[in-house]
Task: structure prediction
Amino acid sequence: MIEVERIQNVDLDYLTYLLNISTHDEEIFRTADEIRRRYVGEEIHLRAIIEFSNICTQNCLYCGLRAENKDIKRYRMPLESIIERAELISELGIKTVVLQSGEDPYYTTERVTQLITEIRKFNLAITLSIGERKFEEYKIWKQAGADRYLMRHETASPELYAKLHPHDSFENRKAHLLELKRLGYETGAGCMVGLPGQTPRDLALDLAFLKELDADMIGIGPFIPNADTPLANEKGGDLQTTLKMVALARIVVPTANIPATTALGSIHPLGRQLGMKYGANVIMPNLTPNPYRPNYSLYPGKICLFEKDTACVECTKNMITGLGLKVGSGYGYRIEKVRAQ
Ligand code: SF4
Result:
């Protein structure tokens, strides 16, 4: 029997032990599913994502959008196109839009504020996922009406973080996430699984950090090596460990909103369905318009790049109902209270 209390108390030795062996996996998955049902219910929330710029000033070693990658066709969506797209998302009945990009300075404080102000008119919850920006900007955008901010911490091992992120540190990333929390954003963190040199202990540290932050959203995906990056020849993360991390995250932060990530679906045809069976309660249909969509190439084999325009919406809805779950009808804010059993 697994000791749920030790998991929830983020006992690092115990988490490391569970991450090192596979004999308790089925029980971890079952427990995560029960906790998901009990704390966040049967609804799976749709978050429509618009990847509006693949330009980035950073050089994260694992990422296809890194500034030094010259083998990628770069794009920036004009503000009007992003706003139009958000309107379409609202018309499709989805209640959250995720605005995602590389760290692209073209989208200044004012431009992002304009996006938020215009998109608010469509009654959408707005999630920003545009990387590390000035604290003052976070504040301005919160006041303008942004609801959530996603910024994965990627790894809570300071040494590994420093190796993967030239000119950044885990300490700095943590300071940004704490500031976002302080400002009242629903704040999303999360990590990659299977990074070169990452140990089970490092993954246990990720879970401890998610608990410490009391992350409102938790994105966990496998590391997928990209041929256009310095990590091209490394081995990628595996399905089982990634699913186990999703399940453990659900047990550690029971009320968090946890997506079945696109990366999970990219390493296995049923990756996202398994994610939803083992603790996830969010899915993010890709609503990036063409011709841009195929160029947001974070990693190879990314799914949903060539689907017809809005096809991902129906596809993800079918996935949810096929699992006997319900498509969320509200904004999908974090539930603070335990639901009646
Ligand atoms: S992970 Fe984000 S910040 Fe890093 S290179 Fe990719 S897009 Fe830029």
Q: What stands out?
A: The pocket of iron/sulfur cluster is lined by residues 56, 58, 60, 63, 65-66, 102-103, 131 (CB under 6 Å). The chain has one domain: 4-327. Residues 337-341 have pLDDT under 50 and may be disordered.
